[in-house]
Amino acid sequence: MSAGSAVWRPRSARARGGGWRRLAGVTLLASQGPLAVAGTADSPVPDWKELKGQHFIVQHQADAAYAGEVARRAEQDYDRIARALGITRHGGFWLWDNRARISVYATREAYLAAARAPDWSGGVAQYTTRTILTFQGSDAFLNSILPHEITHLVFREFIGFRQDIPLWLDEGVAQWMDASNRGRVVAIAKQRKVEGQLAPVSALTAAAMGRGVDARDAVAFYAQSASLVGFMLAAHGVAKFREFCGHLRDQHTLEDALRFTYPNTLRSVEALDRAWNAYLEAKPHEQQAGRIYTH
Ligand SMILES: [Zn+2]
Q: What is the reported pTM?
């Protein structure tokens, strides 16, 4: 695949069949190029074997050991992500019959055909059916795409399916929860700050990228978005962040959500911008980059 050919759309789009599809999922793994995946999916193929975990059912066509590893990592990521975002499940919504599904196809080709995904795709999350599709043997999936897509599912269940929440929030949260790339993300944002290239929050909020977007621009967007979310979580805590997201869920604008949640600190997009820039300036890079390896 060519990273430069990656398709990246800013919002969820209606998939064929009326479901939601996600065209996103970034990985910063050098071996794969900056962008991985996504696509859309229809219903799972019948006669699959199933592994049932607490929150996920992993369907697989071939290697049970790989499926077992997917199931183990999914439960581990789910617990970590839900805790990190302060979004815990109530009423057992993701338990038993309502568990999310991960379908692991035997081959890349079978996955691509089923997901109708572009050939650089490694995984996709479908919100309304709480399903993640992938294929056996994708290392980028286990390390990067799985936590990214689980975050999308968890976050969307909390915030709902409105289309106008800031893209930097949606992708920034998902990218930040991909702990394997967090050090790289922080380094990119820090570097852009040093070079005077850090995007203003207003520009991130207005960002809309589509087919043919330059891969470096997309990676820069993901990295800065993740850095911004990471700053909000670090500076003001997860409870406030959850409250902020709750205001967006309740249809308030970004400016209002900021003012309601952070009246004395991040009370506007401009104030958020200033505080984020100051944070990047003050925070020693070594300390930030090192922190990710403790996860
Ligand atoms: Zn994403």
A: 0.77
